[in-house]
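User: Okay, second chain of the day. Same drill as before: sequence in, structure tokens out.
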Amino acid sequence: MKEQKKIKEYSNGELTIVWEPAICSHSEVCINCLPEVYNPYGKPWITIEKATSKQLQEQISKCPSGALSYYMNSEANLNTQNSETEISIMPNGPLVVSGDITIKDANGNSESKSNKTAFCRCGASSNKPYCDGVHTKIGFKG
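Assistant: Same drill. Structure tokens below.
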């Protein structure tokens, strides 16, 4: 049986933040952009009511891994930042793919992703093929 992905949602009534911890690269962009909302030591770690929906949308669009996404509660589907697929390399960090993609593993299992997905470039991630942020701990340069 395939393990179900852990996904958490936080809503302010207008907008719902969707967080997928398994794909978070721990870049801390969220914490640096909106420290009043994101507190990794807090329970819950996201206090959505401390920012406007517009501020949250702007911050979430900067999430390099796509672990944070959102949807407007008046809409039934997740917001995707762009429909074209774009690949970018973060200095000393992951390979970021933006857009809709399908990932197939060695066993032929596939998983669909939208928004952004960060792939490990350093080879040390414990969540391969995804980046888990360990590149900063090992001093990866590239």
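Residues 53-60 form the longest helix (8 residues).

User: Thanks, on to the next one.
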